[in-house]
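Two records follow; treat each independently.
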Amino acid sequence: MGASERLKALRLTVPVMCGYLFLGTAFGATLAQAGFGPAWALMMSGLVYAGSLQFVMVPLMASGAGLVSVALTALMVNARHLFYGVSYIERFARMGMLRPYMVFSLTDETYSVFCGLPQEESDGVMLRVAAYDHLYWVAGSVAGSLLARQLPFDLAGIDFSMTALFIVICVERAMNRADRLPLMIGAVCASGCLLLLGPDNFLAPALALTATLLLFISGKEAAR
């Protein structure tokens, strides 16, 4: 059973591997350009493991930002995890000692893979999916940090790769959904909060407002 679980998890995570190796390399290169070596790449990707947050942390670290500033930034950048992670609270609770790691390793891409699995999927497959994705990210980050100093061209702008990934995921989801109301709600909430609160403060309120509206609409539909 272990071999079949490993093979299934590997097959499920191949698309994530392609993205994580590239994006991890971009992060490692960005980190190296800021003066932090491979050990930092290994530590951050192994212990922080939050792609978009890690890119944001690089200039904060380089400027010597305080712990409070880093903590608030982490909350705003990763607030979305609070909303989609709720759907797996009960499932992870049934995994016993594996629960802390499953919560820690639930990234956007891993969540997307989980959404395609049946409810009765084995703990072994889910654990391996999460662990393989984590390994891909760490490997890409360390490789990027090691290679950055050897590359013969300027890497300015490579940190935009994470933003580009989110744009591609959003467009792909929009094209494959008949109901685009959630996308429209998200766009309106994000735009409104951006105009009212500015680029530094809009993310968490926009996510909270979007989630509240979607839950309200979902409840109304379920009541019909």
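The next record belongs to a different protein.
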Amino acid sequence: MGADVSPTEVERRYANVREAMAGDGLEAVIVSGSEYSGFEGAVRYMSGFVIVHRYAYVLLPLEGEPSIVFPTEARYVGEHRTTWIEEQAFVDAPGAWLRDRARGRGWKRVGVYGLDYVLTVRDYRALADGELELVPYDVEFDLARAVKSDEELASVRNSVRINTEGFWMFLAGFGAGRTEAELLAPCEQYFVDQGCGRLTMDMVLVGENGEAEPEFRIASRNRRIQEGDLVLPSLEIAGPGGHWVEVSRAIAAGGDAPGPEARRMLDAYEEYFEAARSALRPGASAHDVHRAVSKGFSDRGYELGHVTGHSIGMTMIEFPKIGEGVETELAENMVFSMHPHAISADGHACLYMQDTWRVTPDGGEALAGLPMRIFDGSESRPEDRAGAR
């Protein structure tokens, strides 16, 4: 068995997806993955294979053994022995191979995870060339994997440990005169050392006069942090088990930071944090959670520039999202990234702080253990994290 995933866990994953397939009248599901960060996880979830370059598909029939399909040019890209799937097909046109397999088995309705964003155009054309009904299956597939097993939760917690340590490293080096890239470089080295590989997506939000601008950007190696800047490192990584997590807190560089708008936003964040502890429980709807955690921002007149939250697992963004009108019912051991993106009325200031949460019978568990506050660089790593490096 590859990728340190137990046979019991593999069977659990397949059983959950097949139960959803049967309920939707599907004879198979094609799971798409690509090397684009955050879109490779579905294939790893279903096969154990880590996409290094190009793309791959997993074909899971309602009955029978799965297959994993690669373009011919990817034969030597990635460690193919890590997959637990026996049938590995290397073909010039994966879409045509999948279409012909469906025809050969007499299938009529096949679900496709990644139909809108991941499946290549040439493979879609081949699959659509015939009588096969292609059913978009992103939401249904994600819901089938939304509840995490104990084995998955151990991987999630390890990713959170690594990412939280990355924040403490960023904070330890923080100070006026340093560039954003200088601060992130040790974090990235640590992430790679801990087994994240290239599964990191680290960005920053930065602004002067005590307020951060709302646009995410790649850390600069040219501009140096100045007195009065407000800096928000957005650290998003997947640890060696492949589960993505997200952590972010704002850091004030003295002077005017944090500014008055940021302080008002922090008040709303403190209310959100307590609301999430109460609202993220089994039986609540994603809509109700959104209303509960966004109330403090709405009451203060702030727009939320990004989704309030979303399920997160082996793909960076999964369903369900925490948002208006989403009636999906939460269940114990779902895992969510929560990150209300508060933006001022004039569009020039924001606060964006992330946490990875687990749904428990007693409410939300914030896995990083970071206080909800704006840091200033004087804080020290808690004793229980001092040896994490």
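Discussion point: Residues 150-385 form a domain with the Creatine Amidinohydrolase fold (CATH 3.90.230.10). How would you locate this feature using only the token line?
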